[in-house]
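Checked the freezer inventory, then went back to the computational side. Two predictions to log before the end of the day. The first one is the construct we discussed on Monday; recording sequence and tokens without edits.
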Amino acid sequence: MSFRKVTHVLFDLDGLLLDSEELYTETFTKVCSRYGKQFTWEMKASLLGLRGQECANKIIRELNIPLTEKEFTQECNKIYEAVFPSVKLMPGAQKLAQHLYKKGVPLAIATSSSQDSVAKKMQNHKELLKCFHHITAGSSDPEVTKGKPDPITFLVCASRFPDKPRPEDCLVLEDAVNGVKAAMAAKMQVVVVPDPRIDHEQLKDATLVLKSLEDFKPELFGLPGYD
């Protein structure tokens, strides 16, 4: 299988670089159970890649929770304050980002989270943050008008590199179906490291599907390989 050579790499954050998706699941489960509602995997899977406000509205609407989006988010935020600082990195995340950074490949983070949420989750991973030229945080970025599967998060992120690469020259690393759809719509190749519960059929449009970032071979996309 042949892949296009790329020059820039865009990383998703939650579930790809950070093992944070379980923390979101625990938080949503807790808040929903206070109102006698069950937060299921099916519900969770449909939220992957959406911005914070989109997630809150979808949960409230579909589970009929008697809160406004703001109230729901405030309840979640109280839990996030306690759990986010302890979030761990995904296997291979630090190794890959630091390798590409040291080899001079321009990197950025394109996430549906807000800047505040990113800061809380990354407070103990400052070394990793140094690898990225910039972060586009969809939930708080005025230029990002929609969450994934809309391509705008990736298009805005790519446009903020000083040399303004073409979308075709960017590679996206993702973990979610909505992220794959967003990357494809942005005309970018996308490597996905999915939750094993995601139906493989939903990932058929991805350029490459991997079990772990540890399995990623940069040279497949014309990037410098590991020494």
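The second is the one RB wanted added to the comparison set:
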Amino acid sequence: MLRAMAVARVTQLCSLSGRVLCRPVLGHVSVQCGYRGDSPTDSGKDILEIPLPPWQERPDEPLETKRARLLYESRKRGMLENCILLSLFAKENLNRMSERQLNLYDRLINEPSNDWDIYYWAIEAKPTPAVFENDVMAMLKEFAKNKNREQRLRQPDLEYLFESPR
């Protein structure tokens, strides 16, 4: 009887806004992690913000090394939308970019800490900050419009790297 009361009390204490976060399972209490983002009283104190090192320009990096690094960084973003958008953009444009444009692109894809910002600027859902408003951003915005109505569902295969330049 005492054990049943204890389990009932733990279950009562562990419920939040009608959601059960702890459940008795075979006489033991198991913890179930729940999403709390929709809680109106959510303070956000449980969110861990990891500071990223500041972006630094690499003035002594050889151009071919920079192009290879930017190609890799364009493909490995952390969100599928940018992986597709930036990898296809890189395939089409990196080999034609000047050193100044490569540096602008490097800053664009590596300085902002939030990939969603880059995506929203490219599709013009949010205004681009002045520091990123340049000819490379204009190229990316134009590319994102997809005026030729190409099917862009996945990243390009890497075979094009072994083709002779056009």
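For RB: The chain is about 40% helix and 5% strand. Confidence is low (pLDDT under 50) at residues 14-26, 28-39. Let me know if you want it refolded.
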